[in-house]
Automatic annotation (TrEMBL):
Master enzyme that delivers sulfur to a number of partners involved in Fe-S cluster assembly, tRNA modification or cofactor biosynthesis. Catalyzes the removal of elemental sulfur atoms from cysteine to produce alanine. Functions as a sulfur delivery protein for Fe-S cluster synthesis onto IscU, an Fe-S scaffold assembly protein, as well as other S acceptor proteins. This is Cysteine desulfurase IscS. It comes from Roseburia hominis. GO terms for biological process: [2Fe-2S] cluster assembly; amino acid metabolic process. Transmembrane segments: none annotated. Keywords: 2Fe-2S, Cytoplasm, Iron, Iron-sulfur, Metal-binding, Pyridoxal phosphate, Transferase. NCBIfam families: FeS_nifS, PRK02948.1. InterPro entries: Aminotrans_V_dom, Aminotrans_V_PyrdxlP_BS, Cys_deSase_IscS, Cys_deSase_NifS_bac/arc, Cysteine_dSase, PyrdxlP-dep_Trfase, PyrdxlP-dep_Trfase_major, PyrdxlP-dep_Trfase_small. Pathway: Cofactor biosynthesis; iron-sulfur cluster biosynthesis. It is found in: Cytoplasm. The keyword Cytoplasm applies. It catalyses: (sulfur carrier)-H + L-cysteine = (sulfur carrier)-SH + L-alanine. Belongs to the class-V pyridoxal-phosphate-dependent aminotransferase family. NifS/IscS subfamily. It comes from the Bacteria.
Length: 394
C-alpha cells in the first residue's frame, strides 16, 4: 500500500490554498509597486489593499478603517496589550487574562509585569472555560483591559466571548480577544460581542505566513506599535505586505463563505475520531469541552504513554500531529493549558492534539485511529508503569 500523508496539525499552521496563491502571484511580479507611490501600478496596489480591507471588515461585521494589517497573531497580541498598557496607564495598571492564553499573550503579560503592571491570570474550569463570576470579581477600578482568547489552540475550547464582552463593557473596561484559532471557524461579530480589539493570523486559515490583522474599534486610543511611515493610518509603519494582505483577504473570503458547510463536515470527522478513540482505546481522556469546541480540534490524554513517542511513531505512518502546543514541543515542560485544566503532569505528558481540515476524509480518520490504537498499545506494552497498573487491577 502506498504510504499516505495525513496532516492533522492545522492548529500549528495550514497550507496556502491554490486560489489564494493565484490571487497573490501577480503582486510579486508585475504589480510590485509601492502602494504609497503615485504611478498607476502603485495605485493598483493601493486599490487592492483597500478592497482586501473591505473584504476582511465584512467577515467580522465592522468597517474597513478598524482593520490594521500586522505581521500575524503574535504581533497583533503584542500590539494590543503593550499599546493599551501604554495609552491607559494613567487610568490604571491592572490587566485581566487567563492561564490558558497563547504565549504571545502570556509572555507579553510577563513583560508588562516588569513595567509595573499587575496581571490577574484567571483559572479555568476542567473543560478550559473561563468562569464569568470570577472574571467579574477580578475587575477593579484600575482595570484597563481584559484579554481572553476566543478559542484555545490546544484543547479547542470556545470561550463565552459575547458574555465576557458584555461584562467588560458594563464595567467600562476594554476587551481584547486572540481569535487566531476561532477566526473563520466560528461566526464572529465584533459589534454584537462587544469586542474592542481582536488578533488574527493568515497562516492559520490557509493564507500566507507573516500576515494577520488587529481589529481596533474606533475610539480605542492605542498608538503605533511600529514607528516610521504613515501606513495603516499612522498606526503601523512599514511598506505594506501587499502579497500577504491579498492572500489573507482571499483566504478569509473563501473560509467565511464556506464556513457553515465546511465546519459541519469537519465536525462529523472530529466526532468520529473522538467516538472511535473513546470506544477503542482504554484509559484515554478527551481534553476540552465536548460541545463548546472548535470544529477541527481533537485532544486526548493517554495514560502510560509519552506524547513525543506517539508523535514519532505516528510520523512513521505519515501522520502529522502534535502533543501540547507546537511552540513548547522540544521542551520537557507539560503544556500550561493541560495543567490549568487540572491534569497531573504525567497525564499531560501523554497528550495528543489532532487538528483536522476540510481535506481530511472519514477514511483518513479511520487510518489514524487504526494506527493510533496500535501505537498506544505498543508503547504501553513497553511501560513498567502500565505493567504495574495492570497487575494491581487484575
Ligand atoms: C498561532 C497562534 C498565535 C500566533 O500567530 P502567528 O501568526 O504565528 O504569530 C497566537 N495565538 C494563537 C491562539 C495561535 O494559535
Amino acid at each position: 500500500m502506498e504510504k499516505k500523508l495525513i496532516y492533522m496539525d492545522n492548529a500549528a499552521t495550514t497550507p496556502v490554498k491554490p486560489e489564494v496563491l493565484d490571487a497573490m502571484l501577480p503582486y510579486f511580479t508585475e504589480k510590485f509597486g509601492n502602494p504609497s507611490s503615485i504611478y498607476s501600478i502603485s495605485s493598483e496596489n493601493k486599490k487592492a489593499i483597500t478592497d482586501a480591507r473591505e473584504v476582511i471588515a465584512k467577515t467580522i461585521n465592522t468597517t474597513p478603517e478598524n482593520i490594521y494589517f500586522t505581521a500575524g497573531g503574535s504581533e497583533s497580541d503584542n500590539w494590543a496589550l503593550k499599546a493599551t498598557a501604554d495609552a491607559y496607564a494613567s487610568k490604571g495598571k491592572h490587566i485581566i487574562t487567563t492561564k490558558i492564553e497563547h504565549h504571545a499573550i502570556l509572555h507579553t503579560c510577563e513583560y508588562l509585569e516588569t513595567k509595573g503592571f499587575e496581571i490577574t491570570y484567571l483559572d479555568v474550569d476542567e473543560n478550559g472555560l473561563v468562569k464569568l463570576d470570577e472574571l467579574t470579581a477580578a475587575i477593579r477600578p484600575d482595570t484597563i483591559l481584559i484579554s481572553v482568547m476566543f478559542a484555545n489552540n490546544e484543547i479547542g475550547t470556545i470561550e463565552p466571548i459575547a458574555e465576557i464582552g458584555k461584562i467588560a463593557h458594563e464595567h467600562g473596561v476594554l476587551f481584547h480577544t486572540d481569535a487566531v484559532q476561532a477566526y473563520t471557524q466560528v461566526p464572529i461579530d465584533v459589534e454584537a460581542m462587544n469586542i474592542d480589539m481582536m488578533s488574527t493570523s493568515g497562516h492559520k486559515i490557509n493564507g500566507p505566513k507573516g500576515i494577520g490583522f488587529l481589529y481596533i474599534r474606533k475610539g480605542v486610543k492605542i498608538k503605533s506599535f511600529i514607528h516610521g511611515g504613515a501606513q495603516e493610518r499612522h498606526r503601523r509603519a512599514g511598506t505594506e505586505n501587499v502579497t500577504g494582505i491579498i492572500g489573507l483577504a482571499k483566504a478569509a473570503e473563501i473560509a467565511t463563505a464556506n464556513m457553515k458547510e465546511r465546519t459541519a463536515e469537519e465536525i462529523k470527522v472530529r466526532d468520529h475520531l473522538i467516538e472511535r478513540i473513546e470506544k477503542e482505546i482504554p484509559y484515554a481522556k478527551l481534553n476540552g469541552d465536548r460541545v463548546k469546541r472548535l470544529p477541527n480540534n481533537v485532544n486526548f490524554s493517554f495514560q502510560f504513554v509519552e506524547g513525543e513517542s506517539m508523535l514519532i511513531l505516528l510520523d512513521s505512518k505519515g501522520i502529522c500531529a502534535s502533543s501540547g502546543s507546537a511552540c513548547t514541543s522540544g521542551s520537557l515542560d507539560p503544556s500550561h493549558v493541560l495543567l490549568a485544566i487540572g491534569l497531573p503532569h504525567e497525564i499531560a505528558h501523554g497528550s495528543l492534539r489532532l487538528t483536522i481540515s476540510d481535506q481530511i476524509t472519514m477514511e483518513d480518520a479511520d487510518y489514524v485511529v487504526d494506527n493510533l490504537k496500535e501505537i498506544v498499545n505498543h508503547l504501553r506494552e513497553m511501560s513498567p508503569l502500565y505493567e504495574d497498573f495492570i497487575k494491581k487491577n487484575k
